[in-house]
What does this fold into?
Amino acid sequence: MRRVLLSILWVWLAIGLPLKAQSPELFFFRLTGGNYLTSQYVTAMAQDQFGYLWIGTQDGMNRYDGHEIKTYRSLNRNLIDGFVGSLVEHLVVDGQNRVWAATSHGLSLYNWVYDYFEVVVSLEDFRGLPGNYLTFLYVSPGGDFMVGYGDGIYRYNGEEEKFELVFTSPLGTVSAFLIDQSGAWWLGHHGGQGIICYPDPSDSTEFNYYQQELTGEKADYSVMAIQETEAYVWVALENAGVARIEPEQHKVKRYYENGGERYFFDLFTDFQGHLWTSDYSGVKLYMPESDSFHGYYHQANELGTLATGLNGVFVDNQGHVYSYHHGDGVLVAYHSRGFSGFSSHERHYWHTAEPNVSAIHEDIEGNLWLGFFNGGLNIFMWKEGTTLHFPPGDGTKNTEMGPGSVLSLYRDSKGRMWIGSHTGGLHLYDAEKREFEVWREGFTIDAPSHNDIRSIVEDGKGNLWLGLHGGGVDLFDPEQKSFKNYNQRNNGLSTDWVFKVLVDHKGNLWVGTAHGLNLLKPGEERFEVTLADPELKDGLKGNQFITMLQDKRGRLWFGTNNGLYLRNEEGQFIRYAEEMASQVISSIEEDEDGSLWIATLNGLYCLNTDTRILRGFDEVDGLYSPGFNINASYYNGIDQLFFCSPQGVNNFNPKEIRYNLNPPPMRFSGLKVFNETMDKYGEDQLLKGELNSLEELVLGYDQKFFSIEFVALNFFNPSKNRYACKLEGFDTDWIDLGNQRTVSYTNLYPGTYVLRVVAANNDGIWNEEGLTLKIIILS
It folds into this structure.
């Protein structure tokens, strides 16, 4: 496949096809639980140091933990313990992990102990400001919290709990603000007043002014945002695109200054220093290598694209990209895992004739063959840069594809390509003529015993064994072009409904069927049959043997309708990977390192057969579909795996799959006593403060029926987070909770206990420090 990928690159360069290897392909999904936001009109996002996501809307604030959304809103403009007003216009987290939210009527600060927002600036108390409407919120590189009001910039004095004026702009209202890495202050303005930069803010007589060079002749623009990357200062202009400033040379370069994309309203620099922008057309990522922006847009009726009404872009501390919208809530694109693929979308150069690929293989030249559920073939001719398409025929010509689904593709030891289909029989491809030789029951004199060919394999003598779904097994001699049938009646096959055939290293033929596993040894004419025994506690649990694989060690693996099994040398079946969401195995492939890749009806899994560590992947990880077609997979023996689904083909290099290696931060999320949520805090309450703020939890003896809730703040496929707990003084060992985020106790004796909770992320990386809470049960 390395040869193939080099060929692809050569073709792209030679014929001018777009090559965008540097720009990540992002697929946007609606935020899990996002329909519970206080409003789908989202205005701002931020992330605190614990890992919570904060989402501001036109109707209050929301805190997201990967599973649930907790809401904070004001029903009263003059509410003391909440928001003043409801429209969240600005949102930041400062260096002390304080969450600040500016609304249209003031400023609120989150209280971590009592779990509410308290009013800081309102109509009744400006806290040192001239008024209550703020134009920006900003956190300095040193962690100071700063705000803009009119032409002034103010710093918050936490000891005195008020704001102090630190700078006044000579150009009027300050709309955006930045302190760059050199310490220079950048002030952006409304009304075409441009940007003024003070290299030393203590000396207001020395400054650099940028106005006309930002937009040319345009005067009707406002500076919406200012951000810094390693070498540049970037400016988003409301009606004039984006400008890049080189501070040392005082050079300005403009992007998207004309057309519909000139209406920029937000910039965001992520933790890796990448610059993201948002405008009316979509989200854009700056690509330094090409000095250009790569865009992500809304495309009607296409999954994985942006919604309409974009308001802004945000990237969390794990690299996940969020778009927030005016009416469509929040979408998230998780970081790429390394899965690529082919689908029927014509916007991709290499696209398939239809999405549902039911068979796949490579020919001797490395060209990719794809057979379709609705019949016909595609061949990706990499070197030619073309795709050959062979539609299904009507069965009247012996040089074209027959009718029916293509269910098996196979390359023999001589490099010939064989095709088996649902009703079209057996085909041999003639590469020079680009046509087929066909053997079909009822059409040719020499023909397979049944036209539904599900599997093809070659033995050591160069003969082909054909697995027939409804006709047993045929032995085909390609030189004599003769067929010999083995079936249930004559040869003891458990059933004639065959899924898969395999010839092992000893020359044994294994036949997986809809009812049992069959073994035909060399020179024998009758099969040995293995069936599940319902009386046995261990061993086989299912009789549908769907797929098979012999690994590099010579071990035989079987995928059934009820799990994955290894057959040992004693003929015993040992079950593996019982924790998979689906136990219906579609196909199995082994990679270069000896790991098994297992396709099921609900997810793709990677199994280390020595450690039994299992990792699962689904649509969130970049797969086209969680369900895969039966025996529609292929490994090229070097570095590429292919798995086919009804929605397309996923291919990937298993060594380049990126795993989430970050142990998830954890927080306690709630307490229930007799199933009643304890969400009131104070000296006269059971909880003196929010659970994470307590050193110990004291419960009366009549309160000993209680539940404690917790969460791992990993947002990448959080449904796969796992938990374990141990109550010291009660439990003798750790309790595996699976994905359960709560633990309950019903009858603890009076005394002192310590609850310890740990969690793993979606890839099984554990936060072993976890959470600890002392619990005292009074007598």
